[in-house]
Amino acid sequence: MSDIVPELFTDEEKDILQEVMNIAFGQASADLAEVIDIFVILSVPEIHVLKGHQLPGYLCEELQSSGTVNIIEQGFLGKFSGQALLIFPTGAEKELLTLFNQDQELTTLDIDIDILEQETLVEVGNILIGACIGKIAELLSDVVTYDPPRLIAKDYCLEDCQQSPVPAESFAISIRTVFRFDQQNVEGYLFLITNQHSIDWLKKALSTFLESFE
Amino acid sequence: MLSSVLIVDDSPVARMIMKKCLPANHGLTVYEAGDGKQGVKQYLKQCPDLTFLDLTMPVMDGFQALTEIKKNNPKAIVIVVTADVQEKVLQRVAALGALHTVKKPPSKATILDALQQATAALEIQESS
User: Fold this and answer.
1) Is A210 on the interface with B (CB under 8 A)?
2) What is the domain partition of chain A in residue ranges?
3) Which domains can be identified in chain B, with CATH numbers?
4) Does A36 touch chain B (CB under 8 A)?
């Protein structure tokens, strides 16, 4: 798919961003693997930039076969600020809870199974988003703080959706890396939503990152 | 003594970073490939002393490429350069015969260390 906002990044900037994201996703997978015995298969990150109001249509196109989805959102604040959205097809929460609950400890707690599943999604989001954004910040010499992750949409039907989950005028950097969990057939998608100010900073930071190897 | 290296990575930026991390005046002939399939092809054509191999690539990933290279030449010296630093990944590439793994992003120090390890491995091969 070609970019919807093609002029925002040069090809070289997108290459650098792709490599930075590749490194960040690698870190995120390793962090998740430390928490649960899971092997995460990574795909090559694809970077696309679009405006917030274009996000529902884009998500619908990208996740066409998924039907409804659950969306975990976490805000991050630094020179690079915005929201990270981690999107899992509905059903992934059950698979992920199985992974977290291999010793059945969680189900002995007096907590509703739906709540446990939601909390699992939020915690997976926390780990993946935190590692990913943290690594981007580290590589680009930024420091970020985070809002708590939260489930902002449950069983969200992309095809019926006309309203974007993010501000219409924001920029969505779509990083179409798919996390595929080896034992469970679960795939997740990560999107970073940011603004013009952060994009300007990001472009400079990417250039500085590359110059650091000179 | 190493005389040639092959860098296999789908990212042109990653390949450029790798080249910048090689020591100054290294005197190495550097070959490049943009995915695993091209990497295997280049390996067979150029027979480099050392191959730096990324894992997450389109067309053919690094695991498959490593398997193919080792199938053709069990003595091939391959160092994996990857962002995917999961323990199971490190174990898998070691089992497939990678000499060493460098975590992305590489640095001049980690690449120098990798070159020294490859040189030592090559010397052992040549003396046996």
Assistant:
1) yes
2) 11-199
3) 4-127 (3.40.50.2300)
4) no
Cβ neighbour number for residue A66 with a 10 Å cutoff? 18
CB contact under 8 A, A26 and B20: no
Residues B86, A12: C-beta atoms closer than 8 Å: no
Q: Within chain B, what is the greatest distance between any pair of CA atoms?
A: 38
Nearest to residue B101, comparing CAs of B85, B112, B116, B88? B85
ipTM over 0.90: no
Residue in B65, B58, B53, B57 with CA at minimum distance from that of residue B102? B53
CA separation for the pair A136, A132 (Å, rounded): 6
What whole-number distance in Å separates Cα of residue B79 and Cα of residue B83?
A: 13
Pick B51 or A193 by higher pLDDT.
B51
Q: Outline where chain A has alpha helix (H).
A: 11-35, 55-62, 92-100, 113-139, 196-211
A166: helix, strand or coil: coil
In total, the C-beta contacts within 8 angstroms joining chain A to chain B are 63
Asked if B86 lies within 8 A of A39 by C-beta distance, the reply is yes
Q: List all residues 6 or more positions away from A42 whose beta carbon is below 8 Å from its beta carbon.
A: A22, A25, A26, A29, A177, A178, A179, A180, B56, B84
Written as one letter, the residue type at A166 is V
pTM of the prediction? 0.78
Distance from CA of B13 to the nearest CA of A (A): 6
Please give the full DSSP string across B21-39, using - where no structure is assigned.
Answer: HSPTT---EEEEESSHHHH
CATH number (3.30.420.40, 3.40.50.300, 3.40.1550.10, 1.10.357.10) of A11-199 reads 3.40.1550.10
Mark yes or no for CB contact B13/A42 under 8 Å: no
Question: Beta strands A82-89 and A68-77: pairing type?
Answer: antiparallel
Q: What is the pLDDT of residues A6-53, one digit of tens each?
A: 577 888 888 898 888 888 888 888 877 776 777 777 777 788 888 877
Residue in B21, B86, B91 to test binding to A, most A beta-carbons within 10 Å: B86
Chain B residues touching A16 at Cβ < 8 A: 13
